[in-house]
Amino acid sequence: MKKTEEQEFSNSLLNLILLESSSLLSIIGSLLIIVSYLLYKDIRTPSRHIIVCMSISDLVYSTVNFLDAYAKSPNHDVYSDLCVLSSFMGSTAILWSFFWAVALSIFLNVLIVQKDPVFADTLIHKVFHPVCWLIPLIINVFALCFNKLGNTFDFVAPGWCWIEIKLNDVTGKVENRGDAIFWMTLNYKGIEILTYLTIALMYLRIKCHLKDKIKNFENSERKMSTFVSPKSVQAAKTTDRKLIFIPIMLVLLRIWGTIRYILFIIQSKDGDMVHLRMSLADKAFLCLQTVGDNLIGAVNCVLFCFLTPKVWNHLKESMSNMKSKLCCNKKQEIILDPDEKTKLISQSM
């Protein structure tokens, strides 16, 4: 079958560079979050535990997409098998990430608004771990068993595999349109939209709670409120700013794939998808999705490592120690021991 214009542009040098670079940054960022959690005991809080679970999910997803670009073999049978495998792993990982993002918002809501740290900690091991790991896995096991995973012809997933789309060789129409849309909705997009709504509601509730507490403190003549010191108020304001940043960045990074999903539903209704021409906007959406879907690990690293003072101080200290050790090793190599000096003098005479 002739390649679609979506495939041609997805496999272009520009999109491959965007895919590989954003995936690599996300891999590095996710690894940094995980390694910092393992190295520094004083940051091993329950919320950081959830962030690490998110990072594991993002690490798997970005790694699969990074390798997927190299898995496109001329042998159709080989690529078909690799495509199904990468689709299963990638789809499962992205759902893990969404579920853990929702879990983080619920955890913070229970911890900050309801002020029940014991219940919040209980949720992590008794609810979040079983639900967040198993439900995405079950969804994709069913998709795999019913042969729903495979090549999307880059219509909705630019450069990687997801839900299989079957195109008619003659008319160019999508033969399994209804079935493909159903599985796309169940196995990513529907859960993604629910994630947006849930996180927005949870963080809005937390933000309103924090604003009320800050306002009560600042308006109180005796400065008596839940936050007992100006330092606590400053910490609350910092948390407030971060809580705005999290849902906004999630939407900004992921919304482009949702737009392309909606466009696919509209365009595939009666149109010839094989000979469909891409507009400049279509190409822009594709590039933005390529970057956004794969960059989430790097953004989380900036937010939860570089913009978190305790973690950033640990990282700076570790880098400083490494630099000192390297400098010491170089100095030791330069400084000769007395025996070597004697040998050099005797050789020169």
TrEMBL record:
Annotated InterPro entries: GCR1-cAMP_receptor, GPCR_2-like_7TM
Reading the lineage from the top rank, the first entry is Eukaryota
State the annotated membrane topology for this chain.
Multi-pass membrane protein
One GO biological process from the UniProt record? cell surface receptor signaling pathway
* Compartment(s): Membrane
Keywords attached to this entry? Membrane, Transmembrane, Transmembrane helix
The segment(s) forming the G-protein coupled receptors family 2 profile domain are 15-308
Main location per the UniProt record: membrane
Q: Which residues cross the membrane?
A: 12-38, 87-111, 131-150, 180-204, 243-266, 295-315
Protein's UniProt keywords contain Transmembrane: yes
A single GO CC term for this protein reads: plasma membrane
Molecular-function annotations in GO: G protein-coupled receptor activity
Q: What is this protein called?
A: G-protein coupled receptors family 2 profile 2 domain-containing protein
